[in-house]
Automatic annotation (TrEMBL):
Function of the molecule: Mutarotase converts alpha-aldose to the beta-anomer. It is active on D-glucose, L-arabinose, D-xylose, D-galactose, maltose and lactose.
Positions of the NAD-dependent epimerase/dehydratase domain: 8-306
GO BP of this protein: galactose metabolic process
Gene3D superfamilies reported in the protein's UniProt record: NAD(P)-binding Rossmann-like Domain, UDP-galactose 4-epimerase, domain 1
Stretch forming the signal peptide: none
Organism for this UniProt entry: Entomortierella chlamydospora
Protein name: UDP-glucose 4-epimerase
Catalytic activity: UDP-alpha-D-glucose = UDP-alpha-D-galactose
Keywords (A to Z) from UniProt: Carbohydrate metabolism, Galactose metabolism, Isomerase, NAD
Cross-referenced Pfam families: Epimerase (PF01370)
Cofactor: NAD(+)
Stretches assigned to coiled coil: none
UniProt cross-references to NCBIfam families, sorted A to Z: galE
Amino acid sequence: MSPSKQTILVTGGCGYIGSHTVLRLLETGYKVVVVDNLSNSSYESLRRVHKLYGITAASSSTSNFEDASLPVETLIPFHQVDILDREGLAKVFEFHPEISAVIHFAGRKAVGESGRIPLDYYNVNISGTVNLLQVMDEFHVRKIVFSSSATVYGDPPRIPIPEESPIVASMSPYGRTKVFLEHIIKDLCVSSAVKQQEYLKELEVHPKDHKKVYNYEWSAVLLRYFNPAGAHPSGIMGEDPQGIPNNLMPFLAQVAVGNLEKLSVFGNDYPTADGTCIRDYLHVVDLAQGHVAALEKMDKEQAAGTYGCKAYNLGTGTGYSVFDMIKAFNKAVGRELPHVVTARRPGDVPNLTADPRLANRELNWKAEKSLDEMCADLWRWQRNNPYGYNTVHEKN
Ligand code: NAD
Ligand code: WQD
């Protein structure tokens, strides 16, 4: 099916990665439905998606954007539903029988918090996802892209990290939810292939008992994101963390606008060149495109009669230290931001750098944007929106 015919349900579509992905889906010709309980986001992000889609449409010479004049509620149908609410989810699928696949972002993601309230994390991330998978199965929607994380690799034995690296040693309850969910989705795919074989045998024996022929097989792509950062280059959409950010780049951005005094660098005694941890920072717009690539890959495979589950690293393949990131962001901002070296943060590992070659090859996807673009885009977003989506803009 061509993208323009497909409707994708995006859970967590109001969040940081979700909102950038919703925009990318619309730009590539998909239709979308969004489910979010707004526990870590606001509806304003979808208004911004709508606005940006309109801007893209106005500057496009093709007629692919005729829906750009639709109001936001029509362009992006939104349902404020918690993924723990099975009936609520079922109603969304009932209301939108056109949904053909799901991109599943919804869940809780704060590593430190997950150590304090693990049951909440297991409940939302695991029970919520199992609910979603059950409802999808009930409605014969058996195609999913799942947000996994580089955290599933724990402290990996080898850098850059290939997908076959063990995923048993994750450092936090949050990380373990991703490990368990990867297993759950794989198990579902395997069992669905067996079910389909049995069903096909039954069809051969009693063809008349079956008025409609179903396909029970699942397709899944597990995307292991490394460190998403940056914002849409327009400065209109970006990350809007609630409270004090846990992550390096949004923290630095808040120091730059004066909301926070200084950055604490968590340890400079790691076994790396400058003693600070190395991560693989990936522009959120590149990451959004990774989801479109995953959908396209599953479509191609399904057309060839192939189903199943596969994991991919989404990263650039280049690691940067905390000091490298401070330097790069200072350059974007045009001044030195204050920082102080403090103790290590429990659970941090020295180096998480992706080997992204499998995604490059099989998803036909590659991170395109540079570190400088990432920092410039983050700064544009934060400078224009010092209080995120709550920033009050003067009317011209
Ligand atoms: P986010 O918090 O901005 O987005 C998640 C969205 O899910 C939010 O809009 C939130 O309101 C919604 N949500 C939370 N609980 C929900 C529930 N019970 N029912 C319905 N909606 C719910 O986070 P993000 O950074 O956009 O991350 C998206 C996904 O990617 C998450 O699954 C996260 O674990 C994963 N991930 C994120 C990162 C990262 O660094 N941002 C890295 C790796 C993986
Ligand atoms: C990056 C580096 C810190 C904040 C986390 C999750 C991971 C994924 C991405 C969801 C580390 C250092 C940070 C600060 C610092 N999320 N740092 N001062 O820890 O690599 O990954 O987000 O899935 O699962 O674990 O990202 O941005 O928190 O940290 O020095 O105030 O910056 O020690 O070396 P991390 P991060």
